[in-house]
Write a structure and sequence with these properties.
This protein is mainly alpha-helical and 460 residues long. It contains 21 helices and 4 strands.
């Protein structure tokens, strides 16, 4: 009997929301995205009637539709009630993030002026992006819907595009990478899948769709390449706490791939009628993802492992949703490069974080197998990694154990020369697993089936 493949969902340790929902003074008992939109669409009250920031209303935007049918914000009214223009100081005083422990979200008019400020290229953009990130992390449906209706993600991507095209003296400085980091974090926070909250998921999916239509994934991969350049330094340099540029690069790169990981969870599957990620964008993400996985190698810091895990998670989500084809695997040497990287380090793994990165790599290849993207040569490269992973983690990591066994079974089904599987040590390591107390009876039955299948092919 051929063993069934078992895939259990794994909570992504990096892309998942780190901060719990914060208590704020805006009602969160919303049952549907339609209710949220209806609430926001209510007519704006007169200034004297506005008593708190809970009234997310705005009549200050003029909206037009371009030739592609995508709405765009034409102008913002950034004047105060008496007609005078706000200064930056007045704007910060008006929008309170934390005031004696009470968290407040912006009104529609305040958010309009904040988003307009992002695109002015004036001082304080990072502070604005930090505020947007903090607001989004409340996971408040009304704020996220308002942010979407104001095309906030387009404003942030416009800022990121401006930063990437900037040829002034900030190139290569901490300021450049800080701008990239906080633009990415703002996008990441509004593209969060909401966990079990269906309303947040629906809003985030709409925001992600807008981001993809605006070539957001292309811009993020361009940002990744700008940050990847010379991010690897010698161990001596990397350990210097005063190397602010290097640390800024690493933080920016981690934010970029956390954003791509979140967006990849929300894109529609390849075979749906909804707007899809273009093949060109898939090529760029795959190319940049493989590069960043194998290039961040100098020091196994937390930040480097965070970057690597988010890149692996992004590639896996593209595979799951059907955007990756066999030609992509071959073109970018996905198996050869990633397997080579981990195989050279598997015996040097010293932290749980490194083990999780290895687990995510094996999970990526397991999904590639499930989607029929691997051939005999790929399995020939994967076998040593699977055997080494089982020798190291069969006792302690069930997820690595299950997926590695699944890949060995895939090798039995695909490779014409089964002697290579035996010579790689598969028989020995599978036999040892049958004697382990941590391996359940059902799992042992699957392992026995793989062994029987392997020997049956050897004797045929």
């Amino acid at each position: 009997m051929v063993p069934k493949r078992r895939f259990k969902s794994v909570v992504h340790p990096v892309a998942a929301r780190k901060n719990p929902k914060r208590q704020c003074n805006i009602s969160s008992d919303v049952e549907s995205i339609q209710q949220v939109e209806e609430k926001i669409a209510k007519p704006a009250p007169k200034p004297s009637q506005v008593t708190s920031t809970t009234e997310l209303v705005d009549n200050t935007n003029e909206v037009s539709t371009d030739a592609t049918g995508v709405l765009s914000v034409v102008s913002f009214n950034s004047s105060t009630n008496n007609g005078e223009s706000d200064t930056d100081d007045q704007l910060w005083d008006e929008v309170h993030l934390y005031n004696d422990g009470n968290f407040e979200l912006p009104t529609g008019d305040q958010l309009s002026r904040i988003l307009c400020h992002v695109n002015t290229s004036a001082a304080g953009e990072v502070q604005v992006l930090k505020k947007i990130t903090q607001w989004a992390e409340t996971e408040n449906a009304e704020f996220l819907t308002l942010f979407h209706r104001k095309f906030g993600v387009v404003n942030v991507f416009n800022f990121l595009k401006m930063v990437l095209n900037d040829n002034t003296n900030i190139v290569g400085t901490s300021l450049l990478f800080s701008n990239i980091e906080w633009a990415s974090r703002a996008i990441e926070s509004v593209c969060y899948n909401g966990g079990e909250d269906k309303v947040i998921y629906d809003i985030a999916k709409k925001i992600t769709t807008t981001a993809i239509e605006f070539d957001g994934m292309d811009m993020l991969t361009s940002a990744s390449k700008k940050c990847t350049c010379s991010v690897n330094a010698s161990k001596h340099v990397a350990k210097r706490r005063n190397d602010s540029v290097l640390l800024s690069k690493q933080r920016a790169l981690a934010a970029v791939w956390a954003t791509l990981a979140n967006m990849s969870e929300l894109i529609s599957t390849h075979d749906t009628s909804e707007r899809r990620v273009t093949n060109e964008a898939v090529n760029k993400v795959l190319n940049a993802g493989v590069d960043v996985i194998i290039q961040i190698t100098s020091v196994e810091t937390y930040r480097n492992m965070e970057i690597r895990m988010n890149a692996l998670h992004t590639l896996k989500e593209l595979v799951v949703r059907g955007y990756v084809e066999r030609e992509h695997i071959e073109k970018y040497d996905v198996v050869f490069k990633i397997v080579g990287f981990f195989q050279n380090r598997i015996e040097k793994v010293e932290s749980k974080l490194s083990e999780t990165a290895l687990e995510m790599a094996i999970r990526l290849f397991s999904w590639c197998h499930m989607k029929d993207l691997l051939d005999g040569n790929d399995f020939h490269r994967l076998l040593p990694l699977c055997i080494s992973s089982l020798k190291q983690y069969a006792q302690s990591n069930m997820k690595i154990r299950e997926r590695a066994v699944d890949l060995i079974h895939g090798a039995c089904l695909t490779m014409t020369d089964s002697t290579m599987i035996e010579e790689a040590g598969a028989t020995e390591v599978l036999g040892e697993m049958l004697a382990m107390n941590v391996v359940g009876q059902c799992e042992k039955d699957c392992i026995r089936s793989v062994i029987v299948h392997m020997f049956g092919k050897l004797n045929s």
